[in-house]
Here is the input.
Amino acid sequence: DHRDLHSFPTRRSSDLGGEGALTPGTTQTQCEDYVATAEKAGVKVASVASGLYWGASLGDPDPAVRATAQDQLGKMARITGWLGCKSLLTIIGAVDVFFAPERPVQAVNEVMGHAREGLHKVLPIAAEAGVTLALENVWNKILLTPVEMADFIDSFGSDNLGAYVDVANCLPWGYAEQWLRTLGDRVAGVHFKDFRRAVGTAEGFVDLLEGDVNWPEVVKAIEEIGYTGPLVAELIPHYRFHPEVRCANTSRAMDAILGRG
Here is the structure.
């Protein structure tokens, strides 16, 4: 679910994968058709995300995989622009992946070095598309504080690199409101999610308002930094039965959080 802090048309996030309606091979004409269809249904496509990063990332140790990741990211940036969106959720690599324990651990300096090289190659494409590559704070053991994230973004000197702040992902090590205030105008996307610190694992993700996110402070921080882009509800954990109920619960919680209930 997407919400804008100041206006509330129905919005959706587009997920770009290896198969389906939206893939790296999707054409500009197809994107224009999707946008037209969405508009007829009263839906605005607000941002783009992808799960392809976990299979091929800019920080991977294998040059062939990095080349694939660069190609995919460039194509995703163009598609994001064709869909009329301004931000592309971007994951640049990982030291390890908690949900894929078979994946070898990678040295942090290696991940960051390769990722930096890849971003330099893709950023011109993002600039041409008018899209911000928004780096999400995920559990990948890199860019663990907002200061690190800010310094990394600033080192590129590009208006097309920003941050995608997940307000729950930072809770094991920090505070969402501090991430937002520290990153300021670098914030190009915001994930709404909730988490219980006492659990401390992926099992700690819960419905909005059931966890430890300080929602009044988060909303205050969003307003203070002048962010007016989409607020994206990431719907995890999944309900085993009747998942449509989670959508309804999330929508109601967001209305309350944003003072629209």
Remarks:
- The first strand starts at residue 2 and ends at 4.
- Residues 151 and 186 are 11 Å apart (CA to CA).
- The longest helix spans residues 108-129.
- The chain has a mean pLDDT of 93.
